Structure formats: C-alpha cells, structure tokens
Predict the 3D structure of the following.
Amino acid sequence: MDFNAIGELLWKLLNSPAVIAASTPGVVWLLARLFMAKPEWEKFEGTIIAAVKWAEKEIPDNVSNTAVKRLDAALKYVIEVYEERQGKTPPADVVASLTEGIQIKHAELENDLALHGGEVE
C-alpha cells in the first residue's frame, strides 16, 4: 500500500456516517463549553458596579492618582465580597479578572453617564 491509498482509506473512514455520528456529541459539547465560558468577574458584576459607585463617592476628584486609588478601593471591596462568598482568598488569575471587570464596568458606567448627561443610578 502506498501513502495515497492509506490517505484515501482514512478519508473515507473519517467521512463515514458512523464516525460523524459518533463524534458529533463531543464536538457539540466542546463548542458549548467554548461559547458558554464567562470570565470570572461576570459572576460578581453587581458587586463590581456597587464597588465602582462607592469608590467614586469615597475618593474625591482632587486627589492625586484618583483613578488608581479608585480602582484599588473598588478591587479591595470586591475581593472582600469574594472572600465572604467563597470562603477563601481569590487566586492571582481571579484577581486579574476582577480588576479587568472593574475597569470594563467603570468604562460602561462612564459611557452611560456621558450618553444620559447625568448621574447613572
């Protein structure tokens, strides 16, 4: 047998109805896992919004490094809630995800504020 004959045989086997039917559930499961995966921070979206609003009120605009201090305060708030809910300190990858979520939600809230021309509740 040469390589072409082996390749044709494998191609016919892989494209047979039995192999396609047997592999379909695995492919569907894999696609569902990929499309349903959410970042860790989305589980704490409400807490993140509350933390961003709280930090905006607690840290005045005239403080140096306002954005950094507000992000830090909001992150500490969210980590505290995470620890209460999960019963443990979040690992570094979760902290990174929560930080990203805080920044995303803050940007969304600022955008809503700019669009509506007033305070977003």
In short: The chain has two domains: 3-36, 40-116. The two ends are 73 Å apart (CA to CA).
